[in-house]
Amino acid sequence: MKGKRKKIVPGILLVYDRENKDRGEKMDCREAQRLVMPYIQDDLTPEELEGFLEHVESCPDCREELEIYFTVALGLRQLDEGSGSYNIKGELEAALEESRRQVRFRRMVKVSCYAVNTLAGLGLLTTFLLQLRIWIIP
Ligand SMILES: [Zn+2]
Q: 19 Cβ partners below 8 Å, 6+ apart?
């Protein structure tokens, strides 16, 4: 009996989790921290990127986690390149700003597509109404 319950509950939670994600609701810390490395490697889908940015901007814990990983990744890269930057916070800010720009751009494209679709729909409707008027009015 107990064993059965244990199996069912995670299943429900998983579905609930997925539904939340589909509705574009806020990402939790576990999910955000899972995405820290992929973020640094520039390996997030646009949806993940948007949720991730939103989360680290409002969650100091995950922001700190990101800073730590970012610092390490940047340090390693600079060792490779033999160059050194002492402004890691500035570098992270710049990277986040770039990501925000990506998200904003994508949102704009989405809205434009929607607007174009709506306009196309209105155009079609107008054409139809005009045609109707020609048919109806002698
Ligand atoms: Zn968090």
A: none
What pLDDT does residue 86 have? 67
What beta strand segments (E) does the chain contain?
A: none
**Residue 48 to residue 103: CA distance in whole angstroms:** 10
Distance 131 CA to ligand 1 centre (A): 57
**Residue from 87, 105, 89, 90 nearest 49 by CA:** 105
Distance 105 CA to ligand 1 centre (A): 25
Select the more confidently predicted residue: 111 or 20.
111
| CA–CA dist 119, 79 (Å, integer) | 53
Q: Return phi, psi of residue 87, to 5°.
A: -115, 65
Summarize the confidence of residues 110-119 as an average pLDDT.
Answer: 89
